[in-house]
Write a structure and sequence with these properties.
four-stranded antiparallel beta sheet; protein serine/threonine kinase activity; 3 domains; transferase; Phosphorylase Kinase, domain 1; 34% helix; HipA domain-containing protein; 12 strands; five-stranded antiparallel beta sheet; 12% strand
């Protein structure tokens, strides 16, 4: 049996501890005299006693491990006998994870790999997706997990006006125009009053650039923890062991008092957006907190919002997390009950949030029409998105019931009336197939 590697753990570029495995259990130990502000996780404040996780790598350290497409690339690049265990992957990718915590093999100099990508040229190219996938294959040690292939890129200041880092994302042919889809959904979130990172779309609509929000204005790394990590569960359980009630409980537990009221309002608004836009992928890893110290923990900006149900394979998908034990789209009444009982919001505040979401959809309609005109292939997808949004806005109303209400004619309002021309066929639930593009192995 090979010996588990010893890894050095840094927080905000400061060496704070070591990580290893003993008898299959993960063991993290802080070094002596580490400052309290240099904690690696809200679940692991600085202390002398080691933190042991009997199931292997602690959920926090699993948070940014490469999965699916990225993991396959690493295996292909390094060979079938490469160490693709959690510890092995962390040793390869831990220096470039989201957030301020970096992990490298023991006694290895801490360096952050920089991508040579010219982001401005990539976004302006007519084959941006292929260029991004080639970039992804060349940047094998960048640990970014998720359903779409992603690569962390620091723009070249000589080629672009941006000075901070972005995440570049693209989709695959079986989920067409996913980048435009997410771009427009994030625009709705932004207009609804949620904080959302700056987004840029490639000229051919195939790549989305999202400004990283794990940096402050001075470029300093911020801590990032998703709710899967905060709940202490394996990322593979991000659908099975979470709920909207868990999100509320964790928010009220860990967000600092000065920011809690904003956080619960934003969480409620984000639920409304996810239901209204039919984002069936709002699982535990797609909610997060950011902070520079334990005294300023805040709800993270909205991210990874996509209208999933417009794609034939996922047409019958339901919400990723249950609410009051149920997973149904027409949940307006339950959402309002949840907002009052679990988030402490008044009826007037919740009604204001809902009104902002409805107004946000209206504000984004011209953009939907613009991209449908710019990208003819997106036109039919745009129509389906508007149909989904129209029904979603009905389903978040307090009196919503399945099959009731008359959806607003969003297609007509956007000037996109007519048949969608998209072939629909009955498909098996993709979540039941762990090897599918939306299965847990691909996220």
């Amino acid at each position: 049996m090979s010996k588990s590697p010893l890894l050095d753990v840094y927080a905000d570029s400061t060496l704070v501890g070591t990580l290893t495995q003993e008898a299959h259990a993960g063991v993290f130990t802080y070094l002596p005299d580490v400052a309290a502000r240099h904690l690696v996780s809200l679940l692991m404040p600085v202390r002398a006693q080691s933190y042991t996780w009997p199931k292997g790598l602690h959920p926090f350290f699993q948070m940014n491990l490469p999965e699916g497409y990225k993991k396959d690339l690493i295996r292909r690049w390094l060979g079938a006998h490469a160490d693709v265990s959690d510890m092995g992957l962390l040793a390869l990718t831990g220096a470039n994870a989201i957030g301020r915590v970096q992990v490298v093999p023991h006694d290895t100099r801490l360096e952050t790999a920089q991508s040579p990508a010219d982001m401005a040229t990539l976004l302006a190219s007519t084959d941006s997706r292929d260029n991004l996938l080639r970039l992804l294959e060349g940047d094998m040690t960048q640990g970014v997990s998720g359903v779409m292939p992603k690569a962390l890129v620091k723009p070249d200041e000589k080629a672009t006006v941006w000075t901070d880092e972005f995440i570049l994302k693209t989709g695959f042919d079986d989920i067409p125009w996913l980048s435009v889809n997410e771009y427009l959904c994030l625009e709705v979130a932004r207009h609804a009053g949620l904080r959302a990172p700056e987004t840029l779309l490639s000229n051919d609509g195939q790549v989305l650039a999202v400004r990283r929000f794990d940096r402050d204005r001075d470029g300093r790394r911020l801590a990032f923890e998703d709710f899967c990590s905060l709940k202490g569960i394996d990322p593979l359980d991000k659908y099975r062991k979470g709920s909207l009630e868990d999100l509320a409980k964790l928010t009220r537990t860990y967000v600092s008092a000065d920011f809690l009221q904003d956080a619960v309002r934003d969480l409620f608004t984000l639920h409304l957006v996810n239901y209204a836009l039919r984002n069936a992928d709002a699982h535990m890893k797609n909610f997060a907190l950011v902070y520079a110290s334990p005294d300023d923990v805040r709800f993270a900006p909205a991210f990874d919002i996509v209208t999933v149900t417009i794609y034939p394979r996922f047409r019958h998908d339901i919400p990723a997390l249950p609410l009051k034990g149920k997973r149904v789209w027409a949940s307006g009444k339950l959402l309002y009950q949840h907002g009052g009982a679990w988030l402490g919001l008044s009826r007037s505040v919740m009604s204001e949030c809902a009104a902002r979401v409805e107004a946000a959809v209206q504000k984004v309609l011209p953009q939907v029409a613009e991209y449908a005109e710019r990208f003819p292939g997106f036109r039919d997808i745009a129509k389906l998105m508007l149909d989904a949004w129209a029904q979603g806005l009905e389903d978040i109303k307090p009196d919503a019931k399945p099959g009731t209400g008359v959806p607003a004619p969003l297609r007509e309002q956007a000037g996109l009336s007519g048949s969608d021309g998209v072939r629909r066929k009955k498909e098996l639930n993709p979540y039941a197939n762990p090897d599918g593009p939306f299965g847990h192995k691909a996220r």
